[in-house]
Design goal:
single chain; 90 residues; mainly alpha; Serine Threonine Protein Phosphatase 5, Tetratricopeptide repeat; 0% strand
Length: 90
């Protein structure tokens, strides 16, 4: 099941612990913000993640973040597709 409030709380904590310097954590935080409907902050956070990924030479990851950023800019959240054996949300 999806729980945007819990996802946001956990992602924010991870961001705090990494001092907002880990692009993967910021990417997750952006997704959590978008899932909760805070698209303006999701866009800003995704841009931070993109800058860090680009600076670290992670071109493939940067392209993935760009795709999610486009969703947030369009007012849409990003959800990972369900994996084999996982439950689908109601």
């Amino acid at each position: 099941m999806r729980n945007p409030a819990a996802a946001l709380r956990l992602a924010q904590r991870a961001s705090d612990l990494t001092r907002s310097r880990n692009p993967a954590v910021l990417d997750t935080l952006a997704a959590a913000r978008a899932a909760g409907g805070d698209f303006a902050r999701a866009v800003a956070t995704a841009k931070e993640a993109l800058a860090l990924a680009t600076a670290a030479g992670k071109a493939r990851f940067a392209r993935e973040i760009e795709g999610r950023l486009a969703l947030y800019q369009a007012g849409q959240p990003f959800y990972e597709p369900p994996t084999e054996g996982s439950r689908k949300p109601p």
